[in-house]
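$ fold --in a.seq
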Amino acid sequence: MSQALVRTAAGWLLGLMLAVAASVVAVNLVNSSVASPEQPVREYLDALQKGEGEKALGLLRASVPESNAAMLDGTALQTAASRIANVHFGDTEERPGNQVMVPMDYTIDGSKLHTEFLLEKTGTEWLFFNKWAFVPASLPVLEVTVVNSNEATLNGVPVNMPNGRNSFAVFYPGEYEASLNGQYFAAPATRATVSSRDTPTAPLSLLTQATSGLKDAVGGKIKEFLDSCAAQANKQQRLQPDCPFYHATNNRVVDGTIDWTITEYPAISIEPFGGRWVVAPLDGKARIKARQVDLFTGAVSDLNVIHDFSFTTRLDVNGDTIKVTPLLSY
């Protein structure tokens, strides 16, 4: 009987030890998976890629600096996180004050990047399972500038750019692309990758240029002005009309024979200068044909001369309205 009791007790003891061991393994397994410091990071990345800014901000426990919040939710946020791929978490590193650093390697557009997340232990659940949360910090800020424009597009979202600049609070990691695609003004897209809350990010600078649409529109107005000017000079039979071109001579030109035509229209170049858009000096050629009489000999001959001319203009663009004002000096 005593041997049977011993065997029974031994069986119970072995079972208890196995149960305790299994419990320890289970606790360690949970603490290294769903209760590990990586888990809040995984949930945070998932919120970024779903465009759930409010959830991401709550998980990150971050404060939003004084800035534009257009990048913190929806399409803009999804776009920022959409190119994150090949995510790999390294070994968690201990930090003072119950804090740990979770390293993450990943790629954006094929470029290898590294981000470190700082978390702290905030307690336990059910006595055994660790609770981890991000150490609170402020979101990074991305500066964007654009030449001669009060608007731009950032991650597919139209944004205001007062006086050509603005600051945007952003989540990390992420990629942010600025561009300007207007009817008359455009800028090539430029990108910035934000991989840390602490590492300064180079500003996104949009170098605005006049589009071919604006150049064609200005060229059309210049052509209309020159053609009208030549027609008016012919109607008034003037050698020196109120135009960029003129003809000076000591001969007498027969009235009714003066015929001005534009043989070469100016090439259009539009550049930013002093907060405005300016048209480069306009150079062209005009031909005058007429009959002329030599005042000394009385000989009559044909006049057929091409004159170079040059003038400047003032360009005003207001929405879809383009105004070109020729500036002529006499």
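$ fold --in b.seq
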Amino acid sequence: MFGIHTEFNSNKRKESIINDVLTREQKSHGVLNVHRINEKNVGDYYCAPHLYFDELKDKKLDISDFRSIFKKKTDNWISQISNNDLILGGGGLLNIKHFKMQMELFEKLASNGKKIVIWGAGHNEINLDDYHKNQKYWIDVNKFGLVGTRDFSFPGEWIPCVSCLNPVFNKTHTEEYEVGLLFNAKSIKDDKLIKKLEKYPQSSNTTNLEEMINFIGKCETLVTNSYHAMYWAILMEKKVVSIPATSKFFDFKYKTPITSFEDFENEIKNATKYTGVLEECREINLKFADKTFDYLNL
């Protein structure tokens, strides 16, 4: 039937895929970088180590292929996971329902001795009340061979997003805007919000990396509900005011005022410009790469 799964119940289909992986012999034919490959989300796309190291070039797999209704795609996912050592990340792969079953599978595989590295992934809890009440990962990251998360106070070594290695951050910019707003993919569709704040220069994370960086570069202070816009603005020594869409905004090493689109104007005066963060994040990732490649025999 056009290669579509005959099991239409999503949970049963996913459980079958998990059981298939767990019953297979796990091999180490190579290394795969598993993350959310979404070219329409600039942060998701550029947060992956395979983009920055020749050792990992083109060695990638979309974590969301696990959920596909097309059997050819899930068969490939099962085969690739079973036959390779894995690097998970970056991005918000932890504490989010979309990746819960995959991360639990990887935890089981790691517990059974499969070589798996977490590199720059972080928590992404949508319900902020749950995050504040119970700040821990849904999986035990200590079961993995090597762990670096972008969450500063959580278990594992602190490894900020590897996108800091992108050469786009080597460019210089001239500031034109005292305050600029950069919306995430959901907020940019909110016509009432966009209209209400139209006096401010605006952009979104639905453009592309170069446009995002150029817009951030023009701002003295950036107000954003995009995690990577927050991160990149800090790297670029901009003042940042954050509007949290999920828990991921709360645990970066360098803090920003946390507020809402209704109240952000009152927080602009509290925004801080940090220096030297780009160099620090690059050095941390390069050192973690050495450890990772040594562990995976690359």
